[in-house]
Input
Amino acid sequence: MKPKIFIDGEHGTTGLQIRTRLAGRNDIEIISIPVERRKDADARADFLRKADLAILCLPDDAARESVALIGDAGTRVIDASTAHRVAEGWAYGFPEMDKDQAGRIAEAKLVANPGCWPQGPIATLRPLIKAGLIPADMPVTMNGISGYSGGGRQMVEDYEAKGDAAPDFMPYGLTLQHKHVPELKLYAGLSRDPLMQPVVGDFAQGMVTAVPLQLGTLDHIPTGAEIHAAIADHYAGLGNSSVEVAPYAAVERTPELNPETYNDTNRMKLHVFANDKRAQAILVAVYDNLGKGASGAAVQNMDIMLGLAG
Output
C-alpha cells in the first residue's frame, strides 16, 4: 500500500512547490482536503490523522494547531514553519548536517524542515567549528540575497503587482530580530547570536548566502586551504548528498555565484574564498530558497522518512 501524504497548506508558496515536485510520483498517494473545507478544523483533523505523513506548510501557530490535531494518531510530520525548528523532540531536517543526521530523520516521527536562510551558513560553519578551526564563540555575521518568493504569498503578490517599480535590492530584518537566528545559532554550533543581514532581490527564487570571517582575531589562524579541506572532507563522506563543494581557487569573480543557478533543483554548492595574507575568508552557499531551502528539502526528508528513492 502506498503511503498517504497530506500537505496541510498545499495552496501556499511552499505547498504548491511540493505538489509540483511530487507530480507524477507513483510511489505515494497524495490526499487533499476539499478547498471549501480548508479552514474546517474537523476536516483538517480527519486528513491529518488518516495520513501516514503530513507536511505542514502553514504559519507557526497553525502548524502547532495541526500537531495538536494529530494527537496520538501516529501520523509522522514534516513542519516547514519556524514553529518547531529548535523544539525538543524534533529532528532537524538537514540530512547533510552530520554523517548520522539522515539516520535521525529516517527514524523520527517529527521533523522540522530547515529555513532557507540558515542552511547555507550552517552548511559552512558547522564543519569548521566541529573541526576546531574556528571557535564556537567567534562573532559571526552573515549576509545574502534571496528571491522574493522567500517572503511567502504576500511578498510575491506585492512584488509582482509593482512590476518594474519593485525594488531591485531591499535589505530587511533591520531590527536584528530575525526569526532564523536561534536556528542558525543552534545548528551551526555557535555560542553567541550571529548577526544576520538579509536582502530581497527583484527575482522570484534562488539565493546566495555569505559568511565573512576575520581570521586574524584567532590564536591559530587557519589558511583558506585548511578551511576548504575541512568543509570538503565533511561532505565527501556523505551518501546521497544534495550538497557539493566547489574546488578551492583564487578568483576575483565567478558566474557560479548567480543566486538563480540552482533554481528548481535541490542542489546546494559551497565555496570558500580566502586571502591568507589578510587572514580573511568568505564562506558562500548557492541554492534555491524554494528547493534546498524549502519544498525540495521537505521532499528529500519525506523520501528519507519513508525509505523511498525519490
Notes: The chain has a mean pLDDT of 94.
